[in-house]
Amino acid sequence: MSLYKLKAKFTKTDLVYQATADPNTIRYNSLSNTVTGKNAGQILDLNGTLSSTAKGSGFATPQIVAITSAGNDGTANVKFKVEGTTDGSTAASPQTISAVNGGTAYTTTPLKTVTKITVMDQNTTGAVSAGIASLLESSSYSAAQAATYTIKATEIPTGIDPLKVEISFAEGTAVFDYGETFQATSREFMVDDDKISTLTSGSTQNGNLTLVGGSTISFSSPHHVTITGATDESAVWFQIKGATAASATDTEWVQGKDSAGAVVSTKAFKTVTSIKVVTADNGNTAGTSAGKLKAGVTDENKEYTVTVFASQESQIETTPHSGFISHSITQNGSVSSTYLNEISDQSIAIQDVKLPLTSSSSVSMQKNNSYTFQVSDFGYSDPDNRSLSKIKITNLEANGDLTLNGDSNHVSLNQVISVSDISGLKFTPATDAEGSGYGNFEFKVHNGLDYSSSSEKMKVHVGNSVTTTINYFKGKPGDNTTFKVNNGISNYQNYNIDGSLDPTLTLYKSYNYIFEMTGNGHPFYLKNKSATSGINDQFTDGVTREGTIASTGSTLKITVPSNAPSELWYQCSAHSGMLGKLEIKSPYQVIKNMPITIKDGSNQVYSGSYETNNSGIVDFVGVQNKTYDMSFSVSKLVAKSAINIEDVSEALDISAGTNTSPSQQQQVAADINSDGKINIEDVAEILDISSGTSTSSTAKGVFRDSTKTNPFDGLNQQGIQIQGGNSLTLDAYILGDVDGSYSTILGS
Fold it and tell me: Disulfide engineering: 58 pairs with which of 112, 575, 671, 702, CB 3.0-4.6 Å?
């Protein structure tokens, strides 16, 4: 026997990443944005911190670049040219890879940094993005997060004790995957041509071969069965029965060879129960061989797939880390020195996946009612920007009934509820029951890959309502609002006192107003509607005045008390008839579908859209007596009507220090990013809203207790004290509305 025959040869392929991988999940976040409609010659914009164009230091280890196409880029013959460095400084030869349809293509050479990815030959047909080929951490096996390679043995000496390849992967799991539920971290390799059945004694063989030992043959690993004939056996078939790696019974038929030699089963059997000579494919009728036979196993030249996936860990990383798959070959139960380093270790990049996040949440409801949950109630967020997939109820409700899609379908412990079914999740308390945290339960959230690391509590508060008055209305004036009285116009009947064509001016109770003469000096008077005609002032119901308008430049100040009549009338000494009316309104407006959020620190207590009654009252049910932060949001369109270039100017004055004594309202509204400082960043953001270039779909507002005189520190303190059964008067500030114009906001 030649000396080289004493040692088998083992080889393994490079890693192959699954074509079914979730788009852009096998990448550092991220090498390029997802883009649509790139033409030939255009480049993918690299924005990852590890790309050399972003002046990053490169990947921790050289990485295979992955380019994912959502469209049919393969059919369209799209190619991508990838340029970069192998070590951070040495330029690699540009690699051109062909796109695939609805999947991911990979470079063959790993790169330490990436400088350019160019679309070649044809235009892309859909969304395209680039990343790196690495393992994505997960708590369990998923083809979308796995990579594979194959191990093959050649020149295995016949009849030696089996060689067992052991694989280990400390950062995850590496297994020989037989395409079944059965996987193993080791497998035997051997060639033994009569291990199952020795050479038959007769010149021919009819029916079943005699198995070694006369019973079932069992192996520690699945093997391919070899049947060797002494002559042409093409006229018969061999029926092989046994069990697979997963211990499932199986049968295979292989046709005899047309010359002396061995035929090999395509299936790997972990046990063999019978081998029978039969007359036809898929048949069971006994046949007669042309000559002598024997049966054994061979693993020579057979490729066995190793599947690798990474385990989820709690550590949060900013770059992929390397894991190492080690291989050793044992014989007779110990590592064989003959085969040391026969298969080199495999280095593999592992992409960190941050677990989804949630926090304890609260919902409030009125007693003798029920509450239907929304997705937003669970306070989900994900550092990798993956969407909520499902929740798991890890601790049942303390009281009441938690049901899903019907009052009789009670939620069970550890029940999984998909995100689409959350709208069917309902809580119903017992009759007349109430209490803070009455129906608490616990849950975990899932981002499509893993659950959050720990359970969080859903606090279900059941009780009566808290009434809160929102002191907020459309067109709110401040004290000492000045109106220009132009009494030189020709027809007072058609004009308002400020010269506008609107015949009605709205005043609000509890505020002061100044009317300034700008015309030709005809005295101007305010009257109660019931007053007699003429030019004499007759104020009633507590309306008071200071000054008399008799000439250009003179002023008249009136105070509208809280018990003022619903209207006042005005006239000029030049005209005896009633010229128009002033409507006197309560400062409380009906607020339509106002989204209000109440927070206790970082914990959201209450959230939803509400509508006040005609007195500005909002009922918050189940909110406990406490001091809270309270905010609201308005649409981008509404915000733009309130925030204009005057607000930009006001904010700029505060930022530059030219306004040295801004009001509390101005300080709150100008600090639009709520960082406790008013600077050029706030000015820029207010400018974006006023010009319509802001990317945000909503604008935020905050409430302040109008009875408090202490300075209000933006959003950085809790300032709204809620007490059940009491009224609370609040001022509302839209962040960015520095001049307080409150133009056409929220009111009906």
Answer: 112
Q: What is the dihedral of CA 176, 177, 183, 188, to 10 degrees?
A: -40
- Residue 84 phi, psi dihedral angles, 5° rounding: 180, -160
167 vs 327: CA distance, rounded Å: 5
Q: By the 8 A CB rule, do 61 and 347 touch?
A: yes
Query: Are residues 412 and 388 in contact, defined by beta-carbon separation less than 8 angstroms?
Result: no
- State how far the Cα of 502 lies from the Cα of 518, in Å rounded to an integer: 18
Percent of the chain with pLDDT over 70: 75
199-230 pLDDT tens trace: 988 889 999 999 998 889 999 999 999 999 99
Q: How far apart are CA 422 and CA 231, in angstroms?
A: 70
The widest CA-to-CA distance across the chain, in whole angstroms, is 140
* 163 within 8 A of 190, measured Cβ to Cβ: yes
Q: How far is CA 285 from CA 119, 202, 214, 236, 377, in A?
A: 61, 20, 21, 11, 68
CB 634 within 8 A of CB 742: no
**Token pair for residue 520?**
């030709």
523 backbone dihedrals φ, ψ, rounded to 5°: -60, 145
Question: What was the pLDDT predicted at 542?
Answer: 65
With bands split at pLDDT 50, 70 and 90, how would you rate the model's confidence at 480? low
Measure the CA–CA gap between 410 and 404, rounded to whole angstroms.
6
The HSE-up count of residue 504 (CA atoms within 13 Å, CB side) is 6
Say if residues 546 and 537 touch (Cβ distance below 8 Å): no
DSSP 394: E
* pLDDT value at 77 more than 60: yes
User: In Å, how far are 72, 93, 98 from 101, measured between CA atoms?
Assistant: 4, 26, 10
Whole-angstrom distance, CA of residue 97 vs CA of residue 106: 7
Stretch 718-733: mean pLDDT: 71
Q: How many CB atoms lie within 10 A of CB 55?
A: 8
Q: Which amino acid is at 738?
A: V
Confidence of residue 28 (pLDDT cuts 50, 70, 90): very low
Residue with tokens 């004493």: 6
Contact between 109 and 91 (Cβ < 8 Å) = no
**Measured between alpha carbons, how far is 460 from 378 in angstroms, rounded to an integer?**
12
* Residues 374-411 pLDDT 10s: 998 888 888 767 789 999 999 999 999 999 999 999 99
Q: For residue 502, what are its two tokens?
A: 């609107």
Q: Which residue has the higher pLDDT, 294 or 489?
A: 294
How are beta strands 237-243 and 261-278 bridged, if at all?
Answer: antiparallel
Q: What is the pLDDT of residue 80?
A: 94
Enumerate residues 6+ apart whose C-beta is below 8 A from 524.
485, 487, 497, 515, 517, 549, 556, 570, 571, 572, 573
Paired with 698 in beta bridges are 635
Strands (E), 352-452: 361-366, 371-372, 390-395, 401-404, 416-418, 425-428, 441-446
**Rounded to whole angstroms, how far apart are CA atoms 530 and 539?**
10
Of 459, 461, 466, nearest in space to 379 by CA: 459
Predicted local confidence at residue 54, as pLDDT = 52
Closest CA to 475 of 508, 511, 516, 504: 508
Q: Map tokens 């096996």 to a residue.
A: 141
Whole-angstrom Cα distance, residue 164 to residue 156? 12
580, two tokens: 């128009």
- Neighbouring-strand partners of residue 366: 463
Is residue 466 very low, low, confident or very high in pLDDT (cuts 50, 70, 90)?
low
pLDDT tier at 493 (50, 70, 90 boundaries)? very low
- Give residues with Cβ within 8 angstroms of 423, minimum separation 6: 372, 373, 374, 375
* Contact (CB, 8 A) for 290 and 233: yes
Q: How confident is the model at residue 546 (pLDDT cuts 50, 70, 90)?
A: confident
Token pair, residue 81, equals 């040219």
